[in-house]
Design brief:
There is one protein chain. This protein has five helices and six strands, in the order E-H-E-H-E-E-H-E-H-E-H. The chain is of the alpha/beta class and about 160 residues long. It has one domain: Rossmann fold, CATH 3.40.50.1450. Strands 1, 2, 3, 4, 5 and 6 form a six-stranded mixed β-sheet that branches. The longest helix has 25 residues. It is globular, with a radius of gyration of 14 Å. It comes from Streptomyces kebangsaanensis. One of its GO terms (biological process) is proteolysis.
Length: about 160
């Protein structure tokens, strides 16, 4: 075990609410223990696997489309839950987390612990800035991600 902890904010800041993941990463810069790797990704599975390679704990922060939609609703999911949920909640990207996790599992590249913190989106059209519901949910999303990171660092101490 390396004890390495990685937070990946998945999204695109130029697609409105899809920028929630990167916004959480930015907000975490002064809130997580030193040594935590903070990264932003477009969600492409190969790049995601490279970002978390050699990590014990990975926290993914993602924007999702819920069915039925409840913009601003938060979810905290394990790998199995995120993969199962991909049938009822869709990533805002071409390939969802379910496909990424399936690839990681097939390649033997799943970290020991992988937690997904997600927010349901309202608007992923071109533009910048989060919608009201997602902006309102952002502090709690940041708190959840920070708590997961702190717990991971305590386990390795």
């Amino acid at each position: 075990m390396t004890g390495r902890v990685v937070v990946i904010g998945v999204g695109n800041v130029f697609r409105r609410d899809d920028g929630a993941g990167p916004a959480v990463v930015e907000a975490l810069r002064d809130r997580v223990p030193g040594g935590t790797v903070l990264a932003v990704s477009d969600g492409e599975p190969g790049r995601m696997l490279d970002l978390w390679h050699g990590s014990d704990t990975v926290v993914v922060v993602e924007a999702v489309r819920g069915r039925p939609a409840r913009p601003g609703r938060l979810h905290t999911l394990s790998v199995a839950e995120a993969a199962a949920n991909s049938r009822s909640s869709a990533s805002t990207h071409a390939l969802g987390l379910g496909e990424c996790f399936a690839l990681a599992e097939a390649l033997g590249r799943l970290p020991r612990e992988l937690v997904v913190h997600a927010v349901e989106v309202s608007d992923v059209e071109l533009g910048t800035g989060l919608s009201g519901p997602v902006r309102s949910a952002l502090p709690e999303l940041v708190d959840r991600a920070a708590a997961t990171v702190r717990k991971a660092h305590l386990r390795r101490a």
